C-alpha cells in the first residue's frame, strides 16, 4: 500500500519481490511444497497430506513419523524458518510446517501484487541496484 501511494515505491516493491523469491527457494530451499528443483518441505503439518487413504488408520504414529507425507500438497506454503533462519522439516513442528490460511493468504496476495506490477510494466527487479537482503 505504501508503494502504491508513492512512499519509497521502489524499495518496498523490491522488498516484496525479495520475500517471494525467498519463499520460492532463492536460498536453495523452497517453502512452497512441490516448487523448485532444490528441495521443498516433505512433511507439511497437514492431515490430508500426511494421512493415508481410508481405510488405513491415521493416528499419532503418523504425526511422529519421519517419513514424507503420502500425498504431495502442491502449492502449499509452510510456516517457514525460525527467527535464526533455521528450518526443520518435521511434521510435529506445526509452527514451521503447518499449512495455514494466514501464511498462504499473505503469500498469494503478494504473488498477485507482483503479477499486477508485471502486467502494468512495473518490474521491481529493475527499480534499483540492491540485491535481496539474503544474498548481500
Q: Which helices and strands appear, and what pairs or packs with what?
A:
Layout: H1 9-24, H2 47-50, H3 60-64, H4 94-97, H5 101-119
Oligomer: single chain
Helix content: 25-40%
- Quickly count the helices: 5
Which structural class matches the secondary elements? mainly alpha
Q: Note the gap between the termini.
A: 26 Å
Average pLDDT, rounded to a whole number, is 86
Biggest β-sheet strands, sense, barrel:
none
Task: Provide the succession of SSEs.
Answer: HHHHH
Secondary structure: number of strands: 0
Keywords: Carbohydrate metabolism, Cellulose degradation, Glycosidase, Hydrolase, Polysaccharide degradation
EC number: 3.2.1.4
Protein name: Endoglucanase
Family: Belongs to the glycosyl hydrolase 9 (cellulase E) family.
Would you give an account of this structure?
This protein has 136 residues and is mainly α. Helices cover 35% and strands 0% of the residues. It is built from 5 helices and no strands. It has helices spanning 9-24, 47-50, 60-64, 94-97, 101-119. It is elongated and about 55 Å long. The mean pLDDT is 86.
How would you describe this structure in keywords?
5 helices, 136 residues, Glyco_hydro_9, 35% helix, carbohydrate metabolism, mainly alpha, 6hp_glycosidase-like_sf
Quick overview of this protein structure:
With 136 residues, this protein is mostly helical. 35% of the residues lie in helices and 0% in strands. The chain has helices at residues 9-24, 47-50, 60-64, 94-97, 101-119.
